[in-house]
Design a protein that fits this description.
With 271 residues, this protein is of the alpha/beta class. Helix content is 44%, strand content 13%. The protein has 2 domains: 58 residues, no CATH class; 179 residues, Rossmann fold, CATH 3.40.50.450. Helix 1 packs across helix 3, helix 1 packs across helix 4 and helix 9 packs parallel to helix 10. Belongs to the DprA/Smf family.
Length: 271
């Protein structure tokens, strides 16, 4: 079994367990003996996992040891061992801006994105294809003819929410859809949090449009800070519930977005 296929099998058999992924990743980097991992894999590859592994091999994927694997993603504490994909992998080598926000994002997010994105230079927009701000970000990118990457929290053969089906198909056709989850994996709450680290890891910077004080968007922003990425936020009224999170981010040091120049000036030094 090649190392690439071993990583895929481990990824499937351990159910994408972050702790076990990190253990194997550290062993690979340290060029340690992989025999203990091979023995553990043999115990875990039941008939169920063997069938999942066969199905996963029919979907394009890249692993931690592949040249196509994004170098920035290797920098994060828990890089995914495997990413399944549909679309253009070359987008991962370009300047990327993550855009996240509330699933209940208002017209303020939509208006701001419609004004900002057409004025950006060639930049790839990364988001999570969730309802609300994520979908707005992808749609605004497509409207502005900017490439976009969707990092989803389920298998590539699944769509969540269902209303984003056409959007997911369009992004796979002209952009890139990524997931660490194998085919037939439905969405679960913890997977959205895990997905956020990938958005922050891929992006050179992350912008939050609207967010409550407790939200997945702030988790993504915190991941971005931990990964030494640029963090941006749209200012909002002090009485706006969806402005509480972004205003606190700005207070904590996130760049206050006043126009496209805020994004360009902070990201233009990246290659």
């Amino acid at each position: 079994m090649t190392l690439r296929n071993f990583l895929l099998a481990w990824h499937i058999a351990t159910r994408q367990n972050p702790r076990m992924a990190v253990a194997l990743e550290q062993a690979i980097r340290g060029k340690d003996d992989l025999a203990p991992f091979q023995a553990e894999l043999k115990k875990r590859l039941t008939d169920q996992f063997s069938q999942q592994l066969i199905a996963a091999k029919h979907v394009p994927f890249m692993t931690y040891v592949d040249a196509a694997y994004p170098p920035r993603l290797r920098e994060i504490p828990q890089p995914p061992l495997v990413l399944f994909y549909r679309g253009q992998l070359g987008l991962l080598n370009q300047l990327t801006l993550g855009i996240v926000g509330s699933r209940r994002a208002t017209g303020y997010s939509a208006t701001a994105l419609a004004q900002l994105l057409p004025q950006l230079p060639s930049m790839v927009i990364v988001s999570g294809l969730a309802a609300g701000a994520d979908a707005m970000a992808h749609e605004a990118a497509l409207s502005a003819r900017l490439p976009t990457i969707a990092v989803i929290a389920n298998g590539l053969d699944q769509v969540y929410p269902a209303k984003n089906r056409d959007l997911q198909v369009q992004i796979a056709h002209v952009g890139l859809v990524l997931s660490e989850y194998p085919p037939a994996t439905g969405p679960q709450r913890f997977q959205f949090v895990a997905r956020n680290r990938i958005i922050a890891g891929i992006a050179h910077g992350v912008m939050v449009t609207e967010a409550e004080m407790k939200s997945g968007s702030l988790i993504t922003a915190n991941y971005a800070l931990q990964h030494n990425r640029e963090v941006f936020a749209l200012p909002n009224r002090i009485d706006a519930p969806l402005g509480a999170g972004t205003n606190v981010l700005i207070q904590a040091g996130a760049a206050l977005v006043t126009g496209p120049e805020t994004l360009v000036e902070n990201l233009n030094f990246y290659p």
